[in-house]
Specification:
The complex is a heteropentamer of chains A (505), B (326), C (510), D (109) and E (118).
Chain C (H helix, E strand, L loop, with lengths): L8 H21 L4 H27 L5 E8 L2 E6 L2 H28 L4 H19 L4 H19 L5 H33 L16 H14 L11 H4 L5 H28 L1 H5 L2 H23 L3 H21 L3 H32 L10 H4 L1 H15 L6 H14 L3 H18 L1 H7 L20 H19 L2 H8 L5 H13 L1
Antiparallel strand pairs in C: 1-2
Helix pairs in contact in C: 1-2, 1-4, 2-3, 3-4, 3-9, 3-13, 3-19, 3-20, 4-5, 4-9, 5-6, 5-9, 6-7, 7-11, 9-12, 9-13, 11-12, 11-17, 12-13, 12-17, 13-15, 13-16, 13-19, 15-17, 15-18, 15-19, 16-17
Chain D lengths: L1 H27 L3 H26 L4 H30 L5 H12 L1
Helix pairs in contact in D: 1-2, 2-3
Chain E lengths: L1 H25 L3 H23 L19 H32 L4 H10 L1
The chains are: A mainly alpha (505), B mainly alpha (326), C mainly alpha (510), D mainly alpha (109), E mainly alpha (118).
Chain lengths: 505, 326, 510, 109, 118
Amino acid sequence: MLEQHLAALPILIPLLAAPITFILGRSWFTWLFATSTSALACFFSWHLLAAALSDGVLSYALGGWPPPWGIELRVDTANAFVLLAVSTLSTLVLVYAKDSIEKEIEASKHSLFYTAHLLCLAGLSGMLLTGDAFNLFVFLEVSSLATYTLVSLASDRRCLTAAFRYLVMGTIGATFILIGVGMLYMMTGTLNMLDLASRIDVYESSRTINTGMAFIIVGVSIKLALFPLHMWLPPAYTYAPSAVSAFLASTATKVAVYVMIRFIFTVFEVEHVFEEMRMDLILMVLAIVAIFKSSYTAIVQSNVKTVLAYSSVAQIGYMILGLSLVSVTGLMASFIHIFNHALMKGALFMAVGAVFYRVGSVDIKAFRGLGKQMPLTMAAFTIAGLSIIGVPLTVGFISKWYLVTAALEQNHWVIAALVLAGSLLAVVYIGRVIEAAYFQEPTESQAHNKIKEVPWLMLTPMWVLVLANIYFGVDTSLTTEAANAASEWLFQNTEMATTRQEVIK
Amino acid sequence: MAELINLVLLAMLALTALRIIFLKDLFAVIMLFGIFSFLSALIFINLDAVDVAFTEASVGAGISTVLMLGTLALTGRKEKANSHSSFLPLVVVCITGAALIYGTLDMPDFGDPDNPVHQHVAPRYIEESPKEVGLPNMVTSVLASYRGFDTLGEVVVVFAALIAVLSLLSIRKETEQDASESGLKSHHVLHVVAKLVIPLIILFALYVQFHGDFGPGGGFQAGVIAAAALILYALVFGLPNAFAVIGAKFLYCMASAGVLLYASVGLFSMYKGGNFLDYNKIAAEPLAGQHYGIIIIELGVGITVFAVMLSIFYAFSSQTARSNIK
Amino acid sequence: MNLWQNVEPSQLITLSILVPLIGALLVILTGKIPNLREAITLVTATILFSIVLAITDFTFQGEDMHIQVIELFPGLDISFEVEPLGVLFALVASFLWIITSIYAIGYMRGHNEQNQTRFFCCFALAISSVMAICFSGNLLTLFIFYEVLTFSTYPLVTHAGNDAAKKGGRIYLGILLSTSIAFLLLAVLGTYSLTGTLDFRAGGIFDDSHNKVILGGLLVLFCYGIGKAAIMPFHRWLPAAMVAPTPVSALLHAVAVVKAGVFSILKIVIYIFGLEELKTLATTDIMLYIGAATILLSSCIAMTKDNLKARLAYSTVSQLSYIVVGALLASSVASAGAALHIATHAVGKITLFFCAGAIMVASHKKNISEMVGLGRKMPITMVAFAIGAISIIGLPPMAGTWSKWYLTIGALEADKLFIVATLMVSSLLNIAYLLPIPIKAFFNTSSGEQKPWSWADTKEAPLPMLIALSVTSLACFVLFFYPQPLIDLINLIPGVSTEVEMTNNLNGDG
Amino acid sequence: MLFLDVISSILLISGVFFGLSGAIGIFKFPDFFTRIHAASITDSIATILIVGGLLLQTSFDLNTVKLIFILVFLMITSPTASHALAKSARHGGLLTMAEAKEKKQEKTG
Amino acid sequence: MNFILDHYNYWITIILMMAGFYIVISANNLVKKIVGLNVFQVSVFLLYITMGKVSGGTAPIVVDGATQYSNPLPHVLILTAIVVGVATTAVGLALIVRIKGAYGTVEENEFKDQDDAI
């Protein structure tokens, strides 16, 4: 029976668990419940990916109403792959959160944290799996509201302004998407994405549809923090509790990137977006500016979480660059980087959270001498940092390899060089932290109170991610296969849509 | 005639919006926003969207305005002079507006029945839903059955809002001596009228809840109206008395229960062998199944919306009460 | 001679990489007991050398040895393959590791260094990655272990942990990492996108169908991307890395790391570009002249340095460019000379570094101007220094003679008289900056009357160090009189062999 | 039916008149109490007249009942709201115009 | 002229949207920002409802004798969107209350100054 509902389960499980978690209140059991729920969702998303890899596309008609009349969940390799990253990260972060939030969130709000986390997971899963443009908006709002909550749970007052800014920008983004979806609906009379694709007649290019598309792309760009619409991200990730930063940085923006890919490739035709409207040029330029500007900003920050946040903006630049190359390899590079970046940023933010747990600060000065005091944490930070830089045998190298290959495929030598030059900037901002940890003497106040390693419950998920960083950097069969299947499927989709149009006619 | 009303209302709407931009008195801004909401509700009625109008009037103009006023009580009603330049926002807005205007150029004519929007999916809702779902109100059919998953998401959004507000503002019971301060104690007329009206409002809420299948209304509107009844109670008799009627803990359970009730219908249909939220499978007869399903999920929606709206009001007003004591 | 008869030849590659790794692990485990730890280091080094000897044996037998470890990208895997050039480098590195281990034991104890376990562990790791570079079967593997080598030596460079070490380490990592990511990776990927393969293939994987301009660009990217070859202006890391303890400077920055750089260039030139293809590229000449300029300029800089290790470092920079020039001459003789220079320069320069370390341990002197008269107190050390210096200069009867000989002939053959002149001038410069040191140490007559310091308490360095430096200086002799095995090995390199035989005859006549 | 239509028109027109005058009053009157007086006219008499007019337009079905409900509800709530406002104003210490004048005279005198 | 009449609704809607959008991005006071956000959203709702209207149609509730109904789907979507909007508003207002408590002001430039001062 579960097989039949496989597509719906990753959304439903956290969705149902959230209200239960809320009632359970503050207890040790709440944590266990939330974590095991998330693990269950993760388990089913593994199955879902396996099913998608073997069967191709899974369609699940909610309410038993066939699409386009009812809402459809549409699972293919692409979203199953991203979903796997999201649910895995969620589980690991929840394991990590038990001790981490003790220091960062008031005790009375712990159950709210778990509830919001599960809601966020449910929202992100919904965004990924749904095949309906308006349903996407609804789940976008579920995840966004949960995210605002999570960000504002920290004890630093600046998290409030960060959350407010995030809320305003996020709502503007969501409303833009709403406008765009409305325009598409106005011209086609349907909301189902596949149906939309078959009904948008690109050759009779309509100004309304083009505008709708532009609004959707801008709205999603706000959500995924594409430069220059990224202003909400650095403060939000900096002042949020560490567990939240780890989860959001590794999942939330990635899901938005996927949504962008999905709209561009499955709803609007690729040729239309890229060849007629030259969206690829705009995206490419923005992505490259994002990589350099944000990396540079990251270099001059003193708060390590801000450094990582700006680094995230830069890494999103890489993902967008991959998709703007308009090739199977480029798209594959984006997908692989979505997955890999989740692994690296998760580990990095967890390590920084561990430092906050013991030292009580994430300023770069606080990292001095930690290489000796917290060897495991700093080793995790170092390996994940090397991964961000793109050192061989880590996942970062794999992403960069595909991205540069994709650029070179089309003889974009300059872009290939810029991508690699961008990772040099990563050397600097990661190197600063590592140097402080290993080669600088601790400050006087820190030297006095003996700093110990963090509890094993925090170390375990961190190291699971670190090992995943290495494992998937060596054995790339899973990521490559899934990403390749995903991107090839997305490129074939245009043909599929046209054949379907004929059937309907 | 309808067109003319429409034009006039739209013009009034535009005037209100422009006035909001330039007013510095935030109280007036919020009042104007309430007017804006009511005007748009009128336009919605004029455009045949009765359910939407109902919701906009109760949710947009009602609850939103109340919450804004509650915030204003804590933050002060004057906006300070704006120091930074408004040039950049103006440029952004102009570009966005120009893009939108560009987009309208190919838009189909207003109200033309041949528009694509009325062609593809909608006809089935209009023609088949009375037979397939069995309800005269197509909006309810689509909302609760065809797009029931959206509605579940919507309930979850409301629930998420509760989580967010609770994580920001904690609800605390006031002690006894504070209770005497709050409420409109000396307003005897109000007391009497409130006692008279509150049962009526709740009755009306129940009517809206269960009549939503046949006329405009449904769980959202009902939940908000019922919440409004208790908000009135809390305003007139003081927050502590309202707590005595419905405590915060109980509301939390209600909010969760509503979501779970909704989802359990889906799970039950899964158990019966259908897809999630497939009401046809709930009962032996598909139409009966649709009927049960819709009634139960609307109830779930109503419960959650009621509980969440009231909790949010509690959260805001206990902040106000605390700051008053200070 | 062959202890490893029973092992599948291909598995020897795995062993050669794993043995140092296991050694590193054991070093960590036995970190608490210094004697055991150092015994393990020595045993590991010896085992490794015997493995490499076995591999050499199989190479001469014409055994085909290759393994594939894992497929990193579709159609691209981490694979290892034995070929003569790699064997040559592996022989040199593994042999000198034994010597250096002996030396390091004396040095680290004599100097009372901190964190000795970390030192020996990273050392073994570095050797492991050097082995992987030696036997790498494609450019991807080479690149990966090139980076691993950079990271595993970083802790060694910053070993002292003081400000100077940190600064040096930053320059070291900064230059090596940036050049490798920005240029080398781009070049590797460019090669891949042009040819669809990264395998090392006899005669190169490029042919005339590829755009010459792009190939020329790739060559420049490769040359600068391999920052370990220290071509100007990316040579700054090498002097900076001299803050490391002397055994590190000796093995890694005279042998393993820098040689890994020039070895990579040589390998890329021979197996990726192919000598024939190389001749047709416009940038070959440009890089050749840059290499020549590096030879001369760094020799000049070396003369101005008073710090002995700094002088040696610039000397290394200069000597590395010999090999680069040899590779870029695109003549088979010059390539043979370049390959041979890897070995001969290694033994010569490691002797010099050993001596520098011995002097530092024994007398705590770092500057050349303070070493006047030192020869009488430390005769063995200074004699060894003289031998090393003569070998580097390229005078008989030392090993360096052969490689310079072949390089010069290669330059003549390629009709690059400018390079011949450069080599000659450079030899003169070598004499100018190396020979004065032993001469002053032994025959200081000028400043005999006034001695501001006393050598009274200065003795010879500890025994392990003396053994080490004697062995290497002996090797300088041996390689002059008995270079045949190495030359035979070089002859096996495809595209390099025939011409070498011819020059051998020539050589025999002379 | 004509008769009913005429009466209904009269009711509606007069209702609109009161509503309009109330609105003008809110703008033109000088202080809070006079304004609330104007506003409560809109609330009470204008709504009664308009709803009454509409009642006559219906054909005495469910809609009539609904309108009657609305009428009753408004008749309860509108005056109460005006009353509560005014009372709160008094409670908050706001003076009527006459009182304010008196006070002013006392001060000057 | 027909074109103008047919698109008048859309254009007014766009003017409203832009008014709301302008308030959001230019207002310094957070409460006003939220009001602007609401105006913006309500205007988008108007766009949807406008497109759902059919001339001569009635509300989509089955009535005897009615032949043409307006499109119910936009109504459903906007019902959802309204509730989403009020949820966002509530969260935003709660944040404002907390910001007031933490900074003592709800003017954007003032608490920015306070943050920079740290």
